[in-house]
């Protein structure tokens, strides 16, 4: 393969991995052995590479690469292959939403999405890909943003990839912008990791383990209500494949068939705004059901009281 431009930006693949490089004829030997070379761009003020694969756009986070000479190598080959598998870009709708002046006042500053991207990078280092879910997914798909009146962020991670150890080790990382707010449940029973981000604003990030029910062919997350210790289960269409999305110039991941997830949770009126102070997290979602209660001994084991 011949390279004719000293300014050519390349995205290279060796076996199933994608490796970014900038090359000219002098450095052509650095790319020997790669099976394919595809053009990529580095959009200004965005934290990802953009790759055109025969008309389909793929996104890869810049933070997942390390540079050696003219070649950018994956930092973690295992997670890198997943990022590529889940790299196909899908777009949001950017709909105009009718809401009151009060509900238009932002609880989470948009600049703090940078901190959310830092949290994304932390999970990627642990081999996990965070998934936008619930109200956060709705805000991205409907408005290409975060819903102004929302006070928290909802994220899920596939249970088999969930870094449960992070909840215990986070304080030792000495991060000034990220603190552990609570660990609820157990890895095999209603687990939720609640983190608090401190940026221009401060807000909670609820991180759920996404489980797969092979028998019912659905995916689900679990939670509980501390008011009566009810066990809650939120069921979604089966989730196996993710797509890459742009949330305010930062790459995140979401279900490829986003609309199906919004319909099961919010119903056919998902385009209508529902003020957060009138939306009860337990009763409002159409796909959340109570399936049991913690007994007295479990309350102590789970540190619920």
Descriptive overview:
With 305 residues, this protein is α+β, with helices and mostly antiparallel strands. Helix content is 17%, strand content 37%. It has 6 helices and 17 strands. Strands 8, 9, 10, 11, 12, 13, 14 and 17 form an 8-stranded mixed sheet that branches. Strands 5-4-3-1-2-7-6 form a 7-stranded antiparallel sheet, with helices on one face. A hairpin with a 2-residue loop joins strand 6 and strand 7.
Could you give a short description of this structure?
The chain is of the alpha+beta class and 305 residues long. It is built from six helices and 17 strands. Residues 1-10 and 13-19 have low confidence and may be disordered.
Helices and strands in order:
Layout: E1 9-14, E2 17-22, E3 36-41, E4 48-53, E5 56-61, E6 65-68, E7 71-74, H1 77-85, H2 113-125, E8 131-132, H3 134-143, E9 152-158, H4 166-169, E10 178-186, E11 189-198, E12 202-213, E13 218-225, E14 230-237, E15 242-247, E16 250-255, H5 258-266, E17 288-293, H6 296-301
Parallel strand pairs: 9-12
Antiparallel strand pairs: 1-2, 1-3, 2-7, 3-4, 4-5, 6-7, 8-9, 10-11, 11-12, 12-13, 13-14, 14-17, 15-16
Helix pairs in contact: 3-5
Number of H- or I-type helical stretches: 6
Main beta-sheet strand count, sense and barrel state: 8 strands, mixed
Mean pLDDT: 85
Rg: 21 Å
Q: Low-confidence segments, ≥5 residues, pLDDT <50?
A: 1-10, 13-19
Helix content: 10-25%
Number of strands: 17
Instruction: Tell me the fraction of residues in β-strands, as a range.
Output: 35-45%
CA distance, first residue to last residue: 65 Å
Class inferred from helices and paired strands: alpha+beta
Shape verdict: globular
Helix and strand pattern: EEEEEEEHHEHEHEEEEEEEHEH
